[in-house]
Model the fold of this input.
Amino acid sequence: MKRIVASGIFLMSVICGYAQNVQFGVKAGANISWESDHEHIVTSASDESGHEVSTYIESGFKKKKSFHIGGVMNWMLSKKFDVETDLIYSMQGYKDEYYEYSSEEGASKKEYSVTSHYLTVPVTLKFYPVSALYFECGPQVGYLLWKKNELYDEDTDYTYDISKKVDFGLVVGVGGQLSEHLFYNVRYIHGLTDTSKAYNGGKNRNIQLSLSYMF
Done:
C-alpha cells in the first residue's frame, strides 16, 4: 500500500512538473452502493436451550446510502480532452435480509447492514462535446480500510479478515460546469473483483453524485 501511495505521489509530481494546465480541487457527495448477488450462505448452531437454530442469508442485496470526500487533480490535455485523478475516501456497503429458523419458534426474517470504508483512486479520460458538458471513463483501484457487518457485530475482525483488501473497477460518468469553480459529476463504478475470500460473487456497485470545487 505504501508503494502504491508513493508511486501515485511521484506520478502526480511528474505531471505537475511538465503540464501547464493542471488544476487541483476538492469534491464530496453521496454514494448509493450495493453488491452483486453472491452464493447463499447457511449456518447452523444451537441456542442456550439446546434448540437448533439455522440462519439463511438471502443475499438479495439492497442499496445503501452513504458519502464520499476527497481531492481532485485535473490535467487539461486540449479543448476536448482532460485526465482526472482523484484520491477519495468512500463509505460503501449494502443492506440485506436473513431468515432465522428455530426448531422451537419457527422462522423469522431480520435485516442487517454491511459498511465498507475504502480509499479509492479513479483515473478517467474526460471528453467534452461542448464546453460545459463532459463524458468520462477509466479504471479505479480501491483499498479496504475497514469493514463492519452488523450481523456479526461481535466478530468484526473475522468480517474484515475474509474480505479482499484491493478492489478493481471501471468508472463511467457524466458531468459539467456550474460556475467558474464549481462542477457536478455523476458516476457509476462497476466492481470487477470479488469483495470476499470466502465466497464467489459479491462485487461492488456504486453510484456517486458529486460536487467539485476547483481552485
Notes: The CA atoms of residues 33 and 136 lie 20 Å apart. Helices lie at 2-18, 156-161. The mean pLDDT is 83. The first strand starts at residue 22 and ends at 35.
